[in-house]
């Protein structure tokens, strides 16, 4: 039983990843005369969403990525949003597109996401990207699951053969997280709001990924001694989905909140924007072509 687990510091890895993205952006601009460009779309005036988009744009700018912001009123319907996304998909000066979630209950979000050209889906939200994460091939990972995989790799966490529990089944976090772990040969159980005996599932897990948006849902006493705990939740008061103090008494490794998963989400978005920019250039220029989906 651990009383001093290793902290999986996503903020430190994100700093290194962002520095690498900045170097790549500089090289790309030097070789092509073009700056990698990320278009962001915000529907409505939700303060939290607006703040999050601005933060992403500031970090993109620091990494040498140009941003183009599109504000749409809350009254925007599915047709108008799809037309906006399609126009950006057709724009050769745009390399990546981020459609901020949520977009409003009156909008068909899946249709809007799928209007993003797969080669510009740097947030990994389209059906094509999910297929690539599940089946393999060229595409982009959903940013939070992709960031978690990078974090696990960085700290040398063995995923192959591990009994893994993913708590949450959202199409941009839980489901793609499970798909990426399966591709790494983990044995994956996906738990959700209808799961019976959640504590029993968690107690058998070598790796727990909590992504439900419920503060401290996962109790410390549920954690298997020596397990690795990834808390992808963020709730008011800087509280995650895991009882950090309790889990720290049993886990061998654990992500802090904040400073764990969150910074890796944005770092992955920026890195994949550079990937998209590089892939947009003909291979004869010497710039890298398309890359397989991150596992």
From TrEMBL:
One of its GO terms (cellular component) is cytosol. NADP(+) binds at residues 168-170. Transmembrane segments: none annotated. The keyword NADP applies. One of its GO terms (biological process) is purine nucleotide biosynthetic process. It catalyses: (6R)-5,10-methylene-5,6,7,8-tetrahydrofolate + NADP(+) = (6R)-5,10-methenyltetrahydrofolate + NADPH; (6R)-5,10-methenyltetrahydrofolate + H2O = (6R)-10-formyltetrahydrofolate + H(+). Its EC number is 1.5.1.5, 3.5.4.9. Keywords: Amino-acid biosynthesis, Histidine biosynthesis, Hydrolase, Methionine biosynthesis, Multifunctional enzyme, NADP, One-carbon metabolism, Oxidoreductase, Purine biosynthesis. HAMAP family: THF_DHG_CYH (MF_01576). Catalyzes the oxidation of 5,10-methylenetetrahydrofolate to 5,10-methenyltetrahydrofolate and then the hydrolysis of 5,10-methenyltetrahydrofolate to 10-formyltetrahydrofolate. Belongs to the tetrahydrofolate dehydrogenase/cyclohydrolase family. This is Bifunctional protein FolD. It comes from Tsukamurella paurometabola (strain ATCC 8368 / DSM 20162 / CCUG 35730 / CIP 100753 / JCM 10117 / KCTC 9821 / NBRC 16120 / NCIMB 702349 / NCTC 13040).
């Amino acid at each position: 039983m651990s009383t001093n687990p290793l902290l999986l510091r996503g903020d430190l890895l994100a700093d290194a990843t962002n520095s690498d993205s900045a170097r790549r952006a500089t090289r790309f601009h030097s070789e092509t005369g073009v700056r990698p460009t990320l278009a962001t779309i915000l529907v409505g005036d939700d303060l939290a969403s607006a703040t999050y988009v601005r933060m992403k744009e500031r970090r993109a700018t620091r990494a040498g990525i140009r941003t183009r912001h599109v504000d749409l009123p809350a009254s925007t319907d599915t047709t108008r949003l799809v037309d906006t996304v399609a126009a950006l998909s057709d724009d050769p000066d745009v390399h990546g597109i981020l459609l901020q979630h949520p977009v409003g209950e009156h909008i068909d979000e899946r249709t809007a996401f799928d209007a993003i050209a797969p080669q510009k889906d740097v947030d990994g939200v389209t059906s094509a990207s999910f297929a690539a994460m599940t089946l393999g091939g060229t595409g982009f990972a959903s940013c939070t699951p992709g960031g978690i995989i990078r974090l696990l790799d960085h700290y040398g966490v063995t995923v192959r053969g591990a009994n893994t529990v993913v708590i949450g089944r959202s199409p941009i976090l839980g489901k793609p997280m499970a798909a990426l772990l399966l591709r790494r040969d983990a044995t994956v159980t996906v738990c959700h709001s209808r799961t019976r005996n959640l504590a029993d599932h968690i107690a058998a897990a070598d790796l727990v990924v909590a992504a439900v948006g419920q503060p401290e849902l996962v109790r410390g006493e549920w954690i298997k001694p020596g397990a690795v705990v990834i808390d992808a939740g963020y709730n008011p008061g800087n509280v995650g989905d895991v009882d950090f103090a309790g889990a720290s008494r049993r886990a061998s490794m654990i992500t802090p909140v904040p400073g764990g998963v969150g910074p890796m989400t944005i770092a992955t978005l920026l890195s994949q924007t550079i990937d998209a920019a590089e892939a947009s250039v003909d291979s004869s220029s010497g710039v890298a072509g398309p890359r397989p989906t991150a596992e």
